[in-house]
Amino acid sequence: xxxxxxxxxxxxxxxxxxxxxxxxxxxxxxxxxxxxxxxxxxxxxxxxxxxxxxxxxxxxxxxxxxxxxxxxxxxxxxxxxxxxxxxxxxxxxxxxxxxxxxxxxxxxxxxxxxxxxxxxxxxxxxxxxxxxxxxxxxxxxxxxxxxxxxxxxxxxxxxxxxxxx
Length: 165
Description:
This protein is mostly helical and 165 residues long. It is built from eight helices and two strands; from the N terminus they run ααααααβααβ.
């Protein structure tokens, strides 16, 4: 979990029995009560990333999931980025989804001045070009507008991380 300076306070009212249960559970986990509660309420950035990737792998609405990944990746700072994307995605992503995910992660790394995780380099680019539009008149634009991580993977898109309104 990313550690940041705490500047706010939140109080909740619990029964004595609830407080005792929380205290026992937090002691078993080896953390303070506040940390124990927060770990359960707020998933780590890595857990958020894994959930989005799992949704992509499960065949969720591709456009919505990729938009969610874009929003997620653009919300990260350098430390959060490194934590969030450290683990490779599960096997079974189709080649287009795996490459789009890897390109998004690489672009986020570039924008944050970070090194992308090693798993992105292990995803082979697409053999055939994939264009975000089937309109032949847009292909030249897509060929030139696509960011390098996408072009390297033979993916030609117009909008990428953070480009949605």
